[in-house]
Design brief:
The chain is α+β, with helices and mostly antiparallel strands and 762 residues long. The protein contains twelve helices and 46 strands. The strands form ten sheets. Strands 3, 4, 5, 6, 7, 8, 9, 10 and 11 form a nine-stranded mixed β-sheet that branches. Strands 22, 23, 24, 25, 26, 27 and 28 form a seven-stranded antiparallel β-sheet that branches.
Length: 762
């Protein structure tokens, strides 16, 4: 909501904030097989497959081989299993003579409708080897890869030393380069502050989920509140960590899929079925989860070490998807895209995983299009048409809605223009198709400064530049982006308003004027003079300035002084709406600019006039006409009240417009839109205010546009009545046209209101 105070020259943009740090809701990509990391469901960890198929350690007498094991899992509502494939970069044989993770294992898991992920106990001593192992497991049919990374990745460990973060990046980059659409997760510690040197953010950046080992008995022993402490502390630790992330590392915030404990670490620390129930319950009912989509997944370590009543607790609880036929909760959406760009269609939903996809174009199957994401690159007009997908699983088949793709011509940029004042300028252009708006500008053809990109698609573009130098030449180009394609104009130039000098050689004359150059204090190469008369005068020097920027100017003249000069030379200024006459003593004050008119309004063009006459009432004297100078008043660029400079008003609203009106009905009058740097004729052009979580107990408040010459003040209130100025100024200091930022210290658990006040800088 935008409000304004008439006549005060300030604009208020309101933002209501609940003072609770909510992490940014990042987009969660759907991975191959329809795997949704934000809704993974229930899973189980297998250390030794041979121990699992041997009656699950005695808890399930009917489990005697792989088919009965997988059916047992499916009957208890599991969606995935995680099986050990390696120790570091060495294949794990599980007590046999060949690798435990094999295609037969994958086959039986998929036959039962289960996802199967491979994991290695990562030791950070052979990252390329672990990547190669992951590649082999994916080749065998694995649906995902889990990095069981623990103390070996911390600073001071024999393996990582100080290199853990760099190696984690190497690991993540290597995996993602090979498998950009596969599910990848890592399984670190639940209490981050106990292991602060672990590369959480580096792993998180490349992984789709984090699976903290929430082993409440191992950490809290015989404490009867162990489960409560585990979930509460894990939640708080991850929230604090998430709020500390900035820049690209906010992309490390991923769904949290904790690993529960179903084994007994000692004879005195016995895990119970009631604790498993409580663990589910606390995840499911968490009112303020650190997981960005809530706790929609969990798994348990380990499968062969639990009792039958623990299995009952696991089977009677649920998180995330339930079993059943596909139910597409995300349908492919129709869209219009520019030729040469890329588009993505996505479909996913609830039901038994894995899902199998077959995309269609105009009713015909697309070869190789078997992913939940259909990506079309370098669009051509032949790509236009109807797209749908058939999704199947072990329980059924469903066909999505039809999405229509329209392909349009890429934008052509034309009518590029600049309308300038002294310290501001409007850069405008047209594009054939809706696209974004951005301007690069500078004092040389190398440019050097870019405005923030306005992503609102439009065909009529206008960007306000501020903080310019008067009387200066600027170079610029314009940029419009549609999809992944960017279109930039050729180089252009404009000049800001400043001074206009008309020398005597450019003036017009009536009567008798003589050219001379003997005076040392002349302007330029020469000057003109005429003899004085007693009457109304019979000679005039007429200086017509060519005014590019309408507005208010101060007017000066230049003359050379001497004893034979007039002491009462008439100088008449004809401006918009009137004229004024000043008499100048030319015996003094020569060789400099002398002020003869202040704050006079001139229209664009050559209708303005400065006339120097010879009707002084004197004899035997001369009147000198040398040069005239008009100087644009920069104070009109930053008006004290509800006003805007004439060049800006004329561009958007026409002549004699009332800037107190609101032509686009967005709640801000035109003068306030100039102050804010927005477009007064487009309701979608607004002063924007938004937030992003910062370090613990801080919040970053961003706003755009952020323009020079303004003062930005953040105000706060608890009830919307009494507003208090916060002492913070936006930072970093304005160096270009990018968004501004305030950093606020939060008080958890309270509700506060915030608004941004914009006024002209003193």
């Amino acid at each position: 909501m935008v409000s304004y105070r008439n006549g005060l020259g300030c604009l208020l943009c309101w933002l209501v904030l609940l003072f609770r740090l909510d992490v940014a809701k990042a987009e969660i990509p759907i991975r191959d097989g329809g795997i949704n990391p934000a809704n993974l469901g229930k899973g189980d960890w297998i250390w030794y497959v041979s121990w699992a198929t041997n009656k699950l350690g005695g808890a399930a007498p009917e489990v005697v081989n792989l088919p009965t094991l997988m059916n047992y899992y499916k009957a208890r509502g599991l969606q995935f299993i995680i099986v050990k494939a390696g120790t570091g970069s060495t294949n794990f044989n599980g007590g046999g003579s060949s690798p435990q993770f094999n295609s037969n294992l994958v086959h039986h898991a998929h036959a039962a409708g289960l996802l199967i992920f491979a994991y290695t106990r990562s030791y950070d001593d052979d990252v390329p080897g672990e990547i190669a192992m992951a590649s082999n497991c994916f080749a065998l049919g694995a649906d995902g890869w889990i990095i069981d990374a623990e103390v070996e990745w911390e600073n001071g460990a024999n393996q990582a030393g100080p290199n853990g973060p760099a190696r984690a990046i190497q690991y993540g980059e290597g995996l993602r380069a090979l498998f950009p659409n596969k599910f990848i997760a890592h399984a670190p510690f639940p209490i981050i502050s106990f292991h602060s040197s672990f590369p959480y953010k580096e792993f998180g950046y490349y992984c789709d989920a984090v699976m903290p080992q929430a082993y409440w008995k191992d950490i809290y022993g015989t404490d009867p509140a162990a489960v409560q402490r585990m979930v509460t502390n894990m939640n708080n630790e991850y929230r604090t960590w998430q709020n500390s992330l900035t820049g690209i590392w906010t992309n490390s915030i991923k769904p949290i899929i904790p690993i529960g404990q179903t084994y007994n670490p000692s004879a005195s620390e016995i895990t119970t079925a009631a604790e498993v129930d409580e663990f589910f319950d606390r995840l499911r009912t968490n009112a303020n989860p650190a997981s960005i989509t809530g706790y929609q997944g969990a798994s348990f370590w380990r499968t062969d070490a639990r009792t039958s009543d623990m299995w009952t607790a696991i089977s009677t609880n649920s998180l995330g998807d339930g079993p059943g036929a596909p139910n597409l909760t995300m349908q492919p959406a129709s869209r219009t895209a520019v030729a040469g760009s890329n588009v993505r269609f996505t479909a996913w939903g609830t039901g038994s995983k894995p899902f199998y996809y077959r995309w269609r174009f105009n009713g015909t199957n697309l070869p190789g299009a078997t992913s939940p994401n259909l990506v079309l690159t370098n669009l051509q007009f032949t790509h236009a048409g109807e797209y749908s997908v058939v999704v199947s699983n072990i329980s059924g088949v469903v066909t999505s809605a039809v999405a229509v793709l329209n392909v349009t011509e890429p934008p052509t940029l034309f009518d590029v223009a600049a309308t300038a004042g002294a310290t501001h300028a409007i850069i405008s252009w047209m594009s054939t198709n809706p696209s974004s708006s951005q301007v690069s500008f500078g004092l040389t053809p190398a440019l050097g400064t870019e405005t923030g990109e306005d992503t609102q698609p439009d065909t009529q573009h206008a960007v306000l530049l501020a903080g310019l130098q008067p009387n200066t030449n600027y170079y610029f180009t314009v940029l419009s982006r549609a999809g992944t394609n960017a279109y930039r104009s050729s180089g252009w130039m404009f000049s800001t308003a400043g001074e206009i000098v008309v020398d005597n050689t450019a003036a017009a004359y009536t009567g008798s004027w003589i050219s001379a150059n003997s005076a040392s204090d002349k302007f330029g190469a020469d000057y003109r003079y005429a003899s004085t008369t007693l009457g109304g005068g019979n000679a005039s020097a007429l200086f017509h300035p060519n005014i590019a920027v309408p507005g208010n100017y101060d007017v000066y003249i230049w003359h050379s002084q001497g004893a034979n000069r007039s002491t009462s030379a008439p100088v008449t200024i004809y401006f918009n709406g009137g004229n004024s006459t000043t008499r100048i003593n030319q015996e003094i004050g020569g060789g400099t600019w002398r002020l003869v008119g202040t704050n006079l309004n001139f229209r664009a063009g050559t209708n303005g006039l400065v006339r120097i006459g010879n009707g002084t009432g004197e004899t035997n004297q001369i009147v000198v006409a040398d040069a005239v100078r008009l100087v644009y008043r920069t104070d009109q660029e930053t008006p004290a009240g509800a006003a805007a400079p004439e060049w800006w008003t004329r561009y958007y609203l026409g002549a004699n417009a009332n800037v107190n009106l609101d032509p686009d009905a967005d709640g801000a009058p035109s003068w306030a839109e100039y102050l804010a740097g927005t477009v007064p004729t487009a309701g979608s052009s607004r002063l924007s205010l938004w937030t992003q979580s910062g370090s613990p107990h801080t919040l970053q408040v961003y706003f755009s546009p952020y323009l020079a010459g303004r003062r930005y003040q953040l105000e706060t209130s608890t009830n919307g009545d009494a507003w208090v100025n916060l002492p913070d100024a936006p930072f970093p200091a304005l160096t270009d046209q990018t968004p501004g930022r305030f950093s606020i210290t939060n008080t958890p658990g309270t509700v506060r209101l915030y608004r941004l006040k914009v006024s002209w800088a003193p």
